[in-house]
Amino acid sequence: MKRSALLCFLLTVAGTMSAFTERAYSLDLSGMSPIGNVRKVVKISDGILVDCDDDSQVKLQVLAPDLVRVRAGFKKAIPGKDHSWAIARTSWNSVPTKVSESNDTVVLETSELRVVVTRSPLRIAFYDAKTGRAINRDSQPMRYNSATRAVAAVKSLGFEEHFYGLGEKAARLDKRREAFQMWSSDTPGYTSATDPIYQSIPFYIGHSMDREKSGEWRGSAYGIFFDNSYRSRFDLGSTDPENVVFQADGGEMNYYFFYGPSMKKVVNRYTELTGRMPMPPKWALGHQQSRYSYGNEQQIKDVVERYREEKIPLDVIHFDIHYMDGYRDFTWNRDRFPDPKGLMAWLKERGVKPVTIIDPGVKYEPGGNYSVYNEGTRQNFFLKKTNGETYVGKVWPGDSVFVDYTLPEAAKWWGDLHKPLLDTGVAGIWNDMNEHADFESRDGDKWKDVVNYDNGENSKHDKMRNLFALLECKSTYEGLTRLRPDERPYIITRSGYAGIQRYATMWTGDSPSTWSAMELSIPMFQTLGLCGQPFVGSDCGGYQGKSNGELLTRWYQIGFLSPFFRNHHAVDFNDQEPWRFGKRYADIIRKHVQLRYKLMPYLYTVLAEAHETGIPWFRPLILEYQNDYDVLNIDDEFLVGENLLIAPVVTQGATSRDVYLPQGEWYEFGTDKKHQGSQWISVKAPLETVPMFVKAGSILPGGPALEYMSQATNESISYDVYPDKAGNASGNLYEDDGVTRAYLKGGFKKSALNFGQGKLIATASGAKVEEVPSASVRIFGR
Ligand code: MIG
Questions:
Q1: Which of 272, 435, 577, 635 is catalytic?
Q2: What separation, in Å, do the N-terminal and C-terminal C-alpha atoms of the chain show?
Q3: What spacing in Å lies between the alpha carbon of 399 and ligand 1's midpoint?
Q4: Collapsing DSSP states into helix, strand and coil, what is residue 549?
Q5: Distance CA 568, CA 510 (A)
Q6: Where are the beta strands (DSSP E) in 466-549?
Q7: CB under 8 Å to 404, separation ≥6 — which residues?
Q8: What are phi and psi of 410, to 5 degrees?
Q9: 320 in ligand 1 pocket by Cβ < 6 Å?
Q10: What is the spatial distance between Cα 286 and Cα 707, in angstroms, rounded to a whole number?
Q11: Is 216 known to be catalytic?
Q12: Is 198 in the pocket of ligand 1 (CB under 6 A)?
């Protein structure tokens, strides 16, 4: 087929260009022993405890009717101590369960799941308690290697099982027949052949189609979160066509099993367990501009002034590492920026928020007068090796030391260090390099015997590396919350582990300025969303290399509907602010940025849904249409919320493309023109436009054209109504102050929007029913 042939070509090209590890590798289970057979089973308050004949122990805990935690101690009891930095919810209401034993099996049952443990060999299988359908089962007993301390689980691969998730992976949406590693790595210029990259989120979703008696296809989803931060591998039928393996170099066999069958239910539960994104300040949804680096005050002013002249909306400007004095965190280079406070005030007058970068490497400067180094050393806050020496790595400041964020006092101290920046007027913090990067030890091998306090466990790098960014962002988040209790913190991170969404938004790092990198960003955002991280984006235009007007414009046509929306570019390459390639491109880009601001009431509502339920803003079609065979691997289209479908052009020179419309009817955005769903259509897409469709039966609330979020206007919300066949439509509107934390205590307004018989009715949470004046309602399709 045309489409897949093209993709293969792109992937091959990308593959040969990569300077990094090839993704394909084989998973070797030899040397790993199977866990022993069941000797004895004890019912515990929330599940069962199984003793094995090799002195191993297995524990199944029911946290919810659709959530079971599986733990195993190999040749030993499961340790009493149980702590994970990823988990947000540790106490669960008790769930009615039934345990029954037979000669061959032990069965643990909830209203939704039937978990069958086979005694010999010990294998765990999950079934739908209502239908009896097998969801997921061990094809072999769990395995371990007592010499290396590696642990593994081996699951049988469904006949047509497809896989989603694993966080930030430079890969297509469906990960069947692929293999990946978790080992957070600084990978500039990564391509689809690079793995691992920055983040480590060991959570995936399996999806299978079954044919019902009626002949209808029904998709069912489950999730597995392998909460083990050691270097891990996920092999989804790549090495062994019949099996899925997840394996870690150490730590516990410890995973959570989520059952849908709805994929949304899995995502919802996963984010209940690992936490959901707090609402960011509303300005963070605005358009952002960055450059490595705007090197002095005048450059910043010139860019902002040009933005205002061009009338391209702008909310945020980023200060990359050159604002610092010799790359020392929490300092200013006074030659380049003589008056930071004055500059911040200048920006404020223009409605632009400054975000400054903070890297975790603290300049190593014994005997000097860098207070961060001196104070951190005096208080013993920097990471040390087992021999007691402080670990000194190399990053931008040269020799650098790193904070042990697992030390509560150190984490608090780091958070509080942000006070002077905030006092100067800085609005948000950008945490880069937190994989953590070390120019002399990219893989972390030199870090092997670095010890973290880790709740008194004195854990080494092999466990802590993948957690580092989560801990840094936690410390920063808590610091900003303490320092500015009335405002929502805004943090952007590059690396992270499961649960990172509680503290930071993120971007996908140093993608090259290529068409394939742009195309790759779509499944990356979709996948991150499925893994609990809804606030994602990439560097519009690409970060590394030479962009051009067409690429930048097409990238904006994805970026303008991505949660994190920033144009950013590397130091050694060409400038790429929206006007740099001439008026034609600037005009198209302006139109799209403006459209984002006009769509803000809808987008903000979608974001609030992510905060409340974990269901992301930027969705793959499969999340909404999991019974539809055609959408299993569509990753060049995406949904924003439930009702807006975007099919960006990802091919150089293309002026049309094929678009799949799922079931229902779809309007071309902002027009009366409708298409039947459940079919592929071909649409025109000259550079000026990006194909967008709105589902019949929906209402998109819209707002005024703004140059920045807090700009005053008299215009209020307007409503675009796209009626279904019966003439009805519905939608939602979420509103709050966009700045404070009052929304956490009910300080918001949610309205249900219902259109019928020509009238639009808004019902607010307090049951206030209002008919919306017809002057602010636009009805399509009449
Ligand atoms: O080694 O701060 O991904 O966005 O501009 C490069 C400089 C360090 C990497 C980030 C990029 C940022 C750059 N940083």
A1: 435
A2: 38
A3: 18
A4: helix
A5: 9
A6: 491-493, 505-507, 536-537, 539-540
A7: 381, 382, 383, 410, 452, 453
A8: -70, -40
A9: yes
A10: 9
A11: no
A12: no
Q: Residue 72 to residues 77, 181, 208, 601, 652: CA-CA distances in angstroms?
A: 8, 22, 27, 47, 51
Cβ 528 vs Cβ 498: under 8 Å: no
Please answer whether residues 342 and 377 qualify as being in contact, where contact means their C-beta atoms are separated by less than 8 angstroms: no
Q: Find where tokens 């008919």 sit.
A: 771
User: Which residue type occupies 410?
Assistant: A
**What pLDDT score does 3 carry?**
43
The answer to whether 186 touches 435, Cβ cutoff 8 Å, is: yes
Q: Which residues contact 599 (CB under 8 A, 6 or more apart)?
A: 561, 700, 702, 703
**Phi, psi angles (nearest 5°) of residue 680:** -90, 135
360 within ligand 1 shell (Cβ under 6 A): no
The catalytically annotated residue of 432, 462, 628, 636 is 432
Q: Which atom of ligand 1 is nearest to the CA of 396?
A: 1
Tell the residue nearest (CA) to atom 1 of ligand 1: 433
Query: What is the rounded distance in angstroms from the CA atom of residue 85 to the CA atom of residue 469?
Result: 11
Q: Please say whether the beta carbons of 250 and 462 come within 8 A.
A: yes
* Angle made by CA atoms 170, 173, 175, in degrees to the nearest 5: 85
Q: What single string gives the DSSP state of each residue in 230-286?
A: SSEEEEESSSSTTEEEEEESSS-EEEEEEE-SSHHHHHHHHHHHH--PPPPPGGGGS
Torsion-angle region of residue 330: left (phi > 0), alpha (psi -120 to 50) or beta?
Answer: left
C-alpha 463/C-alpha 200 separation (Å) is 12
Out of 432, 434, 438, mutate this one to test ligand 1's pocket (max ligand atoms within 8 Å of CB): namely 432
Atom of ligand 1 nearest to the CA of 290: 5
Which residue in 317, 312, 368 sits closest to 344, CA to CA? 317
**Whole-number pLDDT of residue 313:** 98
Residues 573, 307: contact at Cβ < 8 Å? no
Is 404 one of the catalytic residues? no
Q: Which helix (H) or strand (E) holds 309?
A: helix 297-310
Helix axes 600-613, 583-598, angle to 10 degrees: 60
Nearest CA among 294, 286, 247, 272 for reference residue 563: 286
Q: Please state at what angle helix 408-416 crosses helix 371-378, rounded to 10 degrees.
A: 160
359 Cβ below 6 A of ligand 1? no
CA angle in degrees (0–180, nearest 5) for 266-639-676: 115
* Averaged pLDDT, groups of 10, the chain, 782 residues long: 40 37 60 96 97 98 98 96 96 97 98 98 98 96 96 95 98 97 97 96 97 92 98 95 96 98 98 98 98 97 98 98 98 98 98 98 98 98 98 98 98 98 98 97 96 97 98 98 98 98 98 98 98 98 97 98 98 94 98 98 98 98 97 97 98 98 98 98 98 98 96 93 98 97 97 96 83 95 88
The reply to whether 624 belongs to the active site is no
- For ligand 1, whether the C-beta of 494 sits within 6 Å is yes
pLDDT at residue 475, rounded to an integer: 98
Which of 510, 513, 538, 569 for mutating ligand 1's site (highest number of atoms within 8 Å of CB)? 510
3-state secondary structure of 529: helix
Burial profile 704-727: b = 16 or more Cβ within 10 angstroms, e = fewer: bebbbbeeeeeeebbbbbbbbeee
One-letter amino acid at 357 equals I
Instruction: List, in sequence order, every residue forming a beta bridge with 211; answer none if it has no partner.
Output: 217
CA 110 to chain centre: 31
Ligand 1 pocket, residue 292 CB under 6 Å: yes
Ligand 1 atom at minimal distance to the Cα of residue 539: 4
